[in-house]
Amino acid sequence: MATRIHPTALVESGVEIGEDTAVWDSVHLRGPSVIGAGCIIGEKTYVAYGVHIADRVKINAMAYVCTGVTIETGVMVSAGVIFTNDRFPRATTADLGGLRPSEPDESTEETIVREGATIGAGAVIGPGLEIGRFAMVGMGSVVTRSVPDHALVLGNPARPHGWVCRCGQRLGDDLVCAGCGRAYRAADGRVMEL
Predict the structure, then answer these.
(1) What confidence tens digit (pLDDT) does each residue in 37-87 have?
(2) Does 2.160.10.10 match the CATH number of domain 1-88+108-169?
(3) Using the 8-state DSSP alphabet, how is residue 133 labeled?
(4) Whole-angstrom Cα distance, residue 97 to residue 54?
(5) Measuring CA to CA, which residue among 31, 82, 78, 75 is closest to residue 57?
(6) CA angle 17-54-192, nearest 5°?
(7) How confident is the model at residue 140 (pLDDT cuts 50, 70, 90)?
(8) Global pTM exceeds 0.90
(9) Could you give the CA distance from residue 166 to residue 134 in angstroms, rounded to a whole number?
């Protein structure tokens, strides 16, 4: 399959797009940035310069992926997800004398979404965080702290509500997945696959 870019998408120079990736209508990809192979970038999504998206990532419609975000392989970013990168955002300088530049500066923080994670529709991801491997962020959640591997977080602010298997099913008290049979163990507030 060939890479497909909708004619209404705006792809700036310096954007690298891998094979078999689909970029849908009204997407804006800023350069330089990297989009891996086998990805889907949904309609009306914005990807800023400096973003790195690995292979087989699915980003649904109307997501905002700002500078400083790295998304690893196999991540699902649902519709309307917003990433942020500045804990102290201001439009102007402190003396109101002029607009602050839009380029990254000392207050720009990096966020990484680890492989296999899912971020639910309408979630907001705060700056400088790590979303762990195969973690799941519930729809509409506001994430203000890093999320461990396999954790399920929900709410505003997002709080832990259990653990999920790499297949997406919620784990029971025995930490064995009813869907696929994978087993996990808990140690030091984290869950690891056996």
Answers:
(1) 999 999 999 999 999 999 999 999 999 999 999 999 999 999 999 999 998
(2) yes
(3) T
(4) 40
(5) 75
(6) 170
(7) very high
(8) yes
(9) 5
